[in-house]
Write a structure and sequence with these properties.
By secondary structure, this protein is of the alpha+beta class. The chain has 5 helices and 5 strands. Helix 3 crosses helix 4. It is globular, with a radius of gyration of 18 Å.
């Protein structure tokens, strides 16, 4: 494995620290600081730059799925949970119980919550889309205010995209009728 490197990205919800190698991203976390410490250099791996660029597109509302390579580091159970998190559609939420059911271990709700909290690939593995069974926002390593912001951001953009598709379909249907 090549040497781990870091870069910072100034997002609308604070600085995001991206860590990775020439091959893949290993973590995307909120370091809770106001200053950018890790800047891009000539030897910064392309995958870190790609991650930064895709996060920027996400925050601008132009990207809903990420394509850069990343690597999970965790137990087999954690990796199973994190893979299940990727199935939660953009702009939607699932409960911890929904995730437990999706991994065919309905009684593992607390273990799912624990694995969710250990996710080091914030936003990309969308642990922010997981809520309590009662519909309430529950823990998020980046802070509940960020979780709320991310959910509102995605819902608004999804609603706009759905509205645009609906208008386009109506116009298409009118053309077919005439």
């Amino acid at each position: 494995m090549s040497r781990l490197q870091k870069i910072d990205y100034k997002s609308p919800i604070g600085i995001i620290e991206i860590e990775g190698t020439d091959e893949a991203i290993y973590s995307i976390l909120f370091p809770e600081r106001d200053q950018i410490l890790n800047v891009i250099h000539d030897d910064t791996p392309m995958v870190l730059k790609l991650c930064r660029d895709q996060l920027d597109e996400y925050f601008k509302g132009k990207l809903t799925e990420f394509t850069f390579p990343y690597i999970f580091e965790g137990t087999a159970f954690q990796k199973t949970v994190w893979n299940s998190l990727k199935e939660v559609p953009y702009g939607q939420t699932w409960s911890y119980k929904d995730i437990a059911i999706s991994i065919e271990n309905e009684k593992a709700i607390r273990a799912v919550g624990s694995a969710n909290g250990k996710n080091k690939l914030s936003i990309i593995i969308p642990c922010h889309r997981i809520i309590g069974a009662n519909g309430q926002l529950t823990g998020y390593a980046g802070g509940l205010w960020r979780k709320e912001w991310l959910l509102k951001h995605e819902r608004l953009l999804k609603k706009e995209a759905d509205g645009f598709r609906s208008i386009r379909n109506e116009n298409h249907n009118k053309k077919l009728v005439h």
